[in-house]
Amino acid sequence: MQQSGTFREAAILLGSSRPRVFTKIALPMARPAIAGGLALVGMEVLNDYGTIKYFGVDTFTSGIFRAWFSFGDVNTAIYLSAILTVIVLALIWLENLSRGSKGWTGRSENTKPARRIESTKSKQWLFTFICSTVLIISFILPLAQLIYWVSLTWREVMDSEFAVLILRSFSLAIGSAFIIAALSIVLLYAVRISPLKWTRHITKTASVGYAIPGAVIAVGVMIPMMELDKKINWLFSNQAGLVLSGTLVIVIIAYIVRFMAVGYNAIDSGFQKTGASVNEVARSLGASPLRTLFKIDLPLIRNSIAAGILLVFVDIMKELPLTLILRPFNFHTLATKAFDMATNEMIAESANASLIVVLTGIIPIILLNNFIGSRKKTLSNSQLETIEKEMKAEEKQKVHDSV
Amino acid sequence: MAILSLNNISKKYRSGDKFAVDHVSFSLEKGEILALVGESGSGKTTLLRLIAGLEHPDHGEIKLDGKTIVSGHQSLKPNKRKTGMVFQDYALFPHLNIFENVAFGLKGLKKKEAEQRVFETIELTGLKENIKKYPHQLSGGQQQRVALARALAPRPEILLMDEPFSNLDTILRDQVREEVRQIIKKIGITAILVTHDTKDAFSTADKIAVMLDGKLLQMDTPDALYNDPNSTYVAELFGKSNNLEAVVQPGGFNTPFGFVAGPTDCPFSAKSEKVNLFFRAEETDFCEAEEPHLCGRVEKCVYLGDHMQLKVCCNPCSSCQKNISLPKELNTQSILLKSPVQTWKPGDVVRFRLKNFKVKETENDETSN
Q1: Most CB atoms within 10 A, among A18, A82, B243, B280?
Q2: Interface touch B73/A105, C-beta < 8 Å
Q3: In chain A, where the domains are located
């Protein structure tokens, strides 16, 4: 959606009609974005456990669960995980391969936003209808159902135990999000000040976890942690207990592996935007790397850091398969509680936890919208002029169409 | 016959209280190259987009090849006008190779004809060996030529170029400018290019139009614009010049640097006391004390490689100014001279003659015209 408007203008001046501009220019140029979107959906589906379990559909993830929990067959779980990982990586690689040597982005730095196309009244209603149908089916109806169920059951469910559950869920998510943000900053800053080229690749690899389903990560994290626990217990002559694999430590480590990419990318975009020169100026004025980080870089990218923490927080609040496998005995988050109740035929009761998870997911959308809104207010005059130009052009487009 | 004519074209953006393009009229002959020159915000790009049909004027009329394409609120859609455009960032389609980019605008031709047209145009721009490559695999200069080929392939009536050289570095720029002019002339197409670089305009265009605040200040050949600008703004845009205030005397003009013999048919001698003598910094001869001359003192000199630029103020104790009486404020004037000799230093006495100058009304009168 952020394609430069000049491509469209260039195509039109070469005699193209609007449908041709869409099929020959806009759609092919959007391919990487579409592929990215599809890959994201694919990863979410591969990762999903709650839905498929509830509706009884067998997938790789449910297979891993069954092998692990029902049959106690760790090796099969590992094999399935390995196959799934290879499939995911192969898909990413295939997409990259099919793009070939084609370039997909313009070289333009002053990308002009594409102009809105004014449509007739009847078309406006049609588009509004199509878009709102999607919204109603995918969001408003399920939300209404949840609210209805909550209105029926909240008196029984919302007790002090439930309050503790909420508190526990929130603090786990917030704590993990802060750890991930801190690690991301360390990695990214190392890339920035390190003269070695491969540091970038290494840190990039640290964020691959997002492509890998939670169940696979759970299996992958569990095995080395159990080994470590064995060593620790050997050291302390079996007095230590399962300090890693039996506690929240393993859950947090798994969250880091899985959600590093979310925090990393958000904070990286902040670093990219500020550019390296501010850092270099501070260093040339005699500031140490550490002082530069705290006095220059971090204040400049604080919005990106906040966004990263928020996104990770929401992701962890929703996380199910990983938490389900790795959580300590009888430990629940809102997500696992909702799943637990739903599988025990307490659908209406599970809506209470679900609704809270859904509402926390809406927070970042509101905040990000506000952020973008406040950014618009501080646009420079020339930017405003461009926007005004576009608006004027929209009006005139109508005149064009009528001729 | 004029291929393009604009009649009283105006355009206001919603935000602005002033015109982006303010009642502009001009016409262009077939095969001419016009450069629209002005600083950013002067309305030159808007004017180009109005001709292309990407903007719509508030009023006025545009005719292209005898056909009215804009009149009042009626306008022909941009894809129906036969205009080709080269964008500042080239806007090459990144997912299409060079052949496909150039062929994009060809419609209604048989496959063979289209192919031949593409090859012809690509050959013209010297890109034959790159036909299978994608835009990002080409250098800036090559991309620029692909953009030109793509715009030229459908053989438009007029070629529009928005800051076509601004993305190239200095050395490449000189070369590409020359190539672009040759290609355009070879095809014989009419072209308009927008630029803020006067070098681009001088080296590429047959005619130059100077714009300021949406108004067309002057449109003429490069030579006429340089030697006879109609305002200080136009004069300054194309190089260092002097507007020396002088007082009319029988047979010439008194200046703080001495007496300048005037042309016999000077129209100002009868009607006004004060005039401006306009001359370019390089239009002076340096001379010896024996010859009749003007005289001044070097106040500042700047070394500029192939010449030295001197700031010269009047020299009160000079013998040649004995008989000249001038209002006090005129004596504080200084002028800029270009000297091929590089040995000047501040305080030196300069003796010079004006090779060529134009007598103009004082600027205040001029602006009220």
Answers
A1: B280
A2: no
A3: 1-47, 56-98, 134-403
